[in-house]
Design a protein that fits this description.
The complex is a heterodimer of chains A (115) and B (115). Chain A contains no helices and eleven strands. Chain B is an all-beta fold and 115 residues long. Helix content of chain B is 0%, strand content 57%. In chain B, the strands form three sheets. In chain B, strands 2, 4, 5, 9, 12 and 13 form a six-stranded mixed β-sheet that branches. Chain B is globular, with a radius of gyration of 14 Å. The mean pLDDT of chain B is 94. The chains are: A mainly beta (115), B mainly beta (115). Chains A and B meet through β4, β5, β9 and β10 of A and β4, β5, β11 and β12 of B.
């Protein structure tokens, strides 16, 4: 399995500001995903981020609000822009296993609170 | 798009008894069905998965069954222990040779093991 780290682990932000979340993997992976988990809820896919191409966003999520970068095969960032209290969630990155190809492993998550 | 239903939302069992969590999915094209365990403050941990060409898979106390015709799959945990207490999520996705879609998750089951 891949070892995934995220920074920051948690943050408290003021509405109207932006936060960039980093995801680092210990091996090269082609496909990375970003998910949102609202308090006490399930996980919802935000976007798929493949190295070398634009991120693909799911219905209800747009690039202006959640810009994603994927500069290389071990790193990605998700920015939550112009935040409001409704953006308070846990944001998780996941990767496809570099060996099995369809197992997805998750990072520990970034807990975001917007005041 | 895919829709995954999960039941029950909460399950309380006596230590040593078995626990069963059930999920149904809507998209017959989905071919990969993982189960995740999430403990408080942590990211989801993959515990077992099954592909659509297999009807059952077992790993020690954990087993998953898949009925492709009925589009449902289940997680079975035998001889439950206190450390099994957590939230369990089922998920579905489409995996092809070139990669995989992001996961569609069920709403989760809070499993409580009573001592």
């Amino acid at each position: 399995s891949a070892v995934i780290s995220q920074k920051p682990s948690r943050d408290i932000c003021q509405r109207g500001t932006s936060l960039t979340i980093q995801c680092q993997v210990d091996s090269q992976v082609t496909m990375m995903f970003w998910y949102r988990q609202q308090p006490g809820q399930s996980l919802t896919l935000i976007a798929t981020a493949n190295q070398g191409s634009e991120a693909t966003y799911e219905s209800g999520f747009v690039i202006d609000k959640f810009p994603i970068s994927r500069p290389n095969l071990t790193f990605s960032t998700l920015t939550v822009s112009n935040m409001s209290p409704e953006d308070s969630s846990i944001y998780l990155c996941s990767v496809l296993s570099p060996t099995s190809g369809n197992e997805q492993f998750f990072g520990p998550g970034t807990r975001l609170t917007v005041l | 798009g895919e829709n995954v239903e999960q039941h029950p939302s909460t399950l309380s069992v006596q230590e040593g008894d078995s626990a069963v969590i059930k999920c149904t999915y809507s998209d017959s094209a989905s071919n990969y069905f993982p189960w995740y365990k999430q403990e408080l403050g942590k990211g989801p941990q993959l515990i077992i998965d099954i592909r659509s060409n297999v009807g059952e898979k077992k790993d020690q106390r954990i087993a998953v069954t898949l009925n492709k015709t009925a589009k449902h799959f289940s997680l079975h945990i035998t001889e439950t222990q206190p450390e099994d207490s957590a939230v369990y999520f089922c998920a579905a996705s489409l995996y092809s040779g070139g990669g995989a879609d992001g996961l569609t998750f069920g709403k989760g089951t809070h499993l409580i093991i009573q001592p």
